[in-house]
Amino acid sequence: MKHLIKINLPGGFISAGDLYEILLIAESAGASCIRFGNRQQLYFEISADSLEDLELDMLKSEITYEIDTDEYANIISSYVADSIFTHYESWLREGVYKDIFDAFDHQPILKVNLVDSNQTLVSFFSGNINFIASGTNNYWFTYVRFPKTNQLYCLPRLVYSEDIPALAKAIEKVILHQKELFYGLPDIDEALFYQTLVDSIDLAFRPIMESLKLPDFYLPYYEGFNKYGNKYWLGIYRRNELFPLDFLKDACLLCLKSRIGQVYITPWKSIIIKGIEQVDRNQWGLILSKHQLNIRHAANELNWQIEDTCQEGLELKQQLVRQFEDADLRTYQLCFAIKTQSKTGLQGSIVIRKNKSGKYDILHMRDFNPNSKEELIYAQDVRPYLLSKKLINLCNDFYKQQADPQLWPASVLSDEASLTPHEMAVYQCNSCLTRYDKRYGDPINNIEKGVDFELLEDYECPVCGGSKNEFQVIYTDQ
User: Fold this and answer.
1) Residue 437 sits in the same domain as residue 344
2) Which residues, 6+ apart, have CB-to-CB distance to 181 below 8 Å?
3) Contact between 260 and 252 (Cβ < 8 Å)
4) What range does the domain containing 170 cover?
């Protein structure tokens, strides 16, 4: 019997010395590899007969951990991107991040994100409580994604940096103590939630003067040796998600020797080491060679999000990556999420979601921006062997949209709420479940938005080539 040990790393970083201590405890308990999670946490497995000794070692070292559970969500942040993926002047620097992390006096149960609004390495809305830096010094937007729903609510006030821990604690208390109102419901009363929240906490909020602007998405290449300023950073990705414990020990010792204070974890389950001096670069190369670790994987292998410790998702990703490579598919400015469970919080430009039938639905975010708050259905009930074909077609659609932005407009009709049921009709292909929605038209067949399905002549499905007669009307609120 195996036990899964989870250690949260608040903010997505840990000192090299603290990580080394965890590695020694894991090694003593029989672990050989470490995993990192998409919420910047650390995992390893041990046998049942080693559990008692591990618990004693953790107690002596005052390390907080969980065994086979995920009760407490890690606080994730974009601190990992600071100075290497953020090339602009900003008030959000290392000291601000650390002051906020240090002020947390509770372990959150709900997922908390702290994100710089000018980077795209760390997703904006994957948490339940999402703090996003505004353009005003030390003030943040607060977006609440109510648990077990897709409902996202922006508080109408900005919060000050030092008040973030208290506000996160108050939001969690309101939601968890009144689940009958704010947890897992199809339509939560946002006004009631806000009033309940402000009645429970006294903070100096600031009015929102300018709404959040989402940056265009691109995933920076987060692997390999890279220069910034007069130093280097090193990103290490593992295809199987497993980092050999011996390698990590050597890396920590070299960090300590070369006075590198911290190791950073990305939400893409990789690690980043910043501040490598030119004179030490060869030493890092020797460690990679000693443990035979490859760097510089193809970009279309790095832009995937899958659930933690999920072998099914990992195997599907590896299969799709191979098929993408065979097709020489371009995936720049796209990222993919594989969800085998519901409500996992993963975000992607394109989402492959397993449904109750064991098949997959394919969705994409509005404008293919993973930080968008609106997802659109592309295909449903797709068998695994057809996934790559449909995903390749969808990627090609994305680049057609890039070439001509008028094909898939950024917003739906402004008077959508007033449309009649007939005008909201959506038609679905009986063969491949591709949909025709007049709000978006059909860019592949050069059909502009607003054209009624009934007016189309000699129409063919853009995916399987089925005739117009193969479509049947459905209704949707998507």
Assistant:
1) no
2) 188, 189, 192, 193, 196
3) no
4) 86-207
> Tokens for 471?
């479509």
Which of 207, 239, 269 is the endpoint of a domain?
207
- Tell if the pTM clears 0.90, that is, is over it: no
Rounded CA separation 380/394 (Å): 13
Q: pLDDT per residue over 202-213, tens digit each?
A: 998 999 988 999
Q: For 280-422, where are the E strands, in sequence order?
A: 304-306, 336-339, 350-354, 360-365, 375-382
285 Cβ contact list (under 8 Å, min separation 6): none
Q: For residue range 233-245, list pLDDT tens digits in order.
A: 999 999 999 999 9
Residue 38 in tokens: 């998409």
Instruction: CATH number of the domain at 373, please.
Output: 3.30.413.10
The whole-angstrom separation of Cα 313 and Cα 456 is 40
Query: How many residues are there in the chain?
Result: 478
- The pLDDT tens digits for 249-299 are 999 999 999 999 999 999 999 999 999 999 999 999 999 999 999 998 999
Per the structure, how many domains does the chain have?
3
| 383-434 tens-digit pLDDT | 999 999 999 999 998 998 887 766 554 433 333 333 344 455 788 877 766 7
389 in the same domain as 351: yes
Q: In 125-277, where do the E strands start and end?
A: 129-133, 139-145, 152-154, 157-160, 206-207, 224-228, 231-236, 243-244, 262-265, 271-276
Domain boundary among 140, 173, 207: 207
